Amino acid sequence: MPRKDENHIDDQEIRLTIQHLSRRIRSMQSDETVTEGQRSVLFTLANNGPQTLGSLSEWERVTPPSMNRTINALVKAGLVTRVGAPDDGRKVTIDLSKEGREFIVLTRRKRDAWFTKQLARLTPEQRSIVDQSAKILREISDS
After folding, report:
1. DSSP sequence for 35-103
2. What is the pTM of this model?
3. pLDDT per residue as tens, the chain (143 positions)
4. DSSP 119
5. What does residue 95 show for φ and ψ, rounded to 5 degrees?
6. Which among 72, 96, 109, 125 counts the fewest CB atoms within 10 Å?
């Protein structure tokens, strides 16, 4: 078992801290009625463009019936649209509506403002450490 001293944080604590920060940032959104699953779908559409129900199901790792319920709620909330393919009426594409795009923009703005405020509180030395750590954490996340 690795030794823990005042200058060494164990692996689990680092992981839990990253998870906590991630949850904190994800919880900030422009509309508090949107669930975590719905928010994930909205960001998937914003980052990857229009998708079929099947591709969204795969991306989000949920069953098609579950994704259909999520999409139905998002359509009802006016955040996404369903568009039939002109060449095949059975194929439906899901995309962000104008309101869905606004949700994404406002949510990103809110998250960025909070995070920028937190970083501004750091000393120059702490900020340098965060910058270096970000590069290392990206390497880990990309591996």
Report:
1. -HHHHHHHHHHHHH--EEHHHHHHHHT--HHHHHHHHHHHHHTTSEEEEEETTEEEEEEEEE-HHHHHH
2. 0.79
3. 445 556 667 889 889 999 999 888 888 877 788 999 999 999 999 999 999 999 999 999 999 999 999 999 999 999 999 988 777 767 889 999 999 999 999 999 999 999 999 999 999 999 999 999 999 999 998 98
4. H
5. -140, 160
6. 125
